[in-house]
Design a protein that fits this description.
The protein has 315 residues and is an alpha+beta fold. The protein contains 5 helices and 12 strands. The radius of gyration is 54 Å and the shape is rod-shaped. The protein starts with 9 loop residues before the first helix and ends in a 9-residue tail after the last helix.
Length: 315
């Protein structure tokens, strides 16, 4: 008896149908995966193209900066290769530079130079003519300082007392007669009023002697021995001193003591501080030998006291 073929066997036909269905399902799944893979690859390629496009734009923008950096690096390389290295600065170089700078620096003028320039236009030389006991003519030299716009002159009273004529000589070379406008014997101060003021009146600037301290600079400008407009410098040696001039019975109190040189002809001249301000009027010297020359101790009336003779308020 012959066996039936596979196509004629119902079991095998059923099995083939099952496998056919399964194969179709697998093919359908494979097709779906293929479509998904194609879509993913498409999105990936689109993303890659966008990324490449953006990268290209970024590189285009970066190119000028990169070129600048490259040129700078190239210049540095060329400079390093062809320009010799700078030698390091040594301590000796620093010392030499400092020495050269100090040597070329112009120092400021000394205080004395500035003080002299300030007071010189206000200084006057006083020549007082006297009559001696034997009726002969004598003369006395002194100094003074212009104190106001009327060209009134502050000086020492003993320079112009008992005189028959007073001549004043200004800084511009002109001269005129003067009269005693006020006198205060108790402080040896006089105010002279000139007959004719100078073409340019330059009153001195008054300072404050109450601000003085022992050791401060002291400048005396006057006409010692007739040497017009001479200056001497020193320090304030003491304050509130008592002094009695040789030819006077009047004792002067509250004097400023100085060691700036004072000689005949300085009396009545200004005592100045470092700013060119008048802080006193020179009145005399003391000498244990009773000789009329300077031994290091001079006296001046504080300008706060002396200025009172001209009507200035005390301060």
């Amino acid at each position: 008896m012959n066996e039936p073929s596979i196509s004629e066997n119902p079991d095998w036909r059923a099995r083939l149908d099952v496998w056919r269905v399964r194969l179709k399902s697998w093919l359908a799944r494979l097709e779906s995966w293929h479509l998904r893979l194609a879509a993913w690859l498409s999105r990936l390629w689109a993303g890659a193209r966008l990324l490449l496009r953006r990268l290209g734009i970024f590189l285009q923008r970066l190119l000028p900066y990169a070129a600048t950096i490259l040129v700078t690096l190239l210049a540095l390389v060329i400079y390093t290769l062809f320009i010799p290295k700078t030698q390091p600065i040594t301590q000796n170089d620093v010392n030499n530079s400092i020495s050269q700078a100090m040597a070329s620096a112009t120092p400021p003028p000394a205080f004395s130079e500035t003080v002299y320039q300030i007071i010189q236009p206000s200084l006057v030389l006083i020549e007082a003519k006297t009559t001696n006991a034997d009726q002969t003519q004598g003369s006395r030299l002194g100094s003074g300082v212009i104190i106001d716009a009327n060209a009134d002159i502050l000086t020492s009273l003993h320079v112009v007392t008992d005189t028959v004529d007073v001549q004043v000589y200004y800084a511009d070379g002109s001269q005129t007669t003067a009269q005693i406008a006020k006198a205060q014997p108790d402080i040896d101060i006089a105010v002279l009023h000139p007959a004719q003021p100078p073409a340019l009146v330059v009153p001195a600037v008054m300072g404050n002697p109450n601000a003085l301290r022992v050791g401060d600079e002291a400048y005396v400008v006057g006409n010692p021995f007739g040497l017009y407009s001479s200056m001497s410098a020193g320090v304030i040696s003491g304050l509130n001193r008592t002094f009695q001039p040789t030819d006077s019975k009047v004792e002067l109190h509250g004097m400023i003591q100085i060691d700036a040189a004072v000689n005949p002809g300085n009396s009545g001249g200004p005592l100045l501080n470092r700013y060119g301000q008048v802080v006193g009027i020179v009145t005399g010297i003391t000498n244990p030998t009773n000789q009329d020359f300077f031994v290091g101790i001079g006296f001046a009336v504080p300008i706060t006291v002396a200025g009172g003779a001209a009507g200035a308020p005390q301060y």
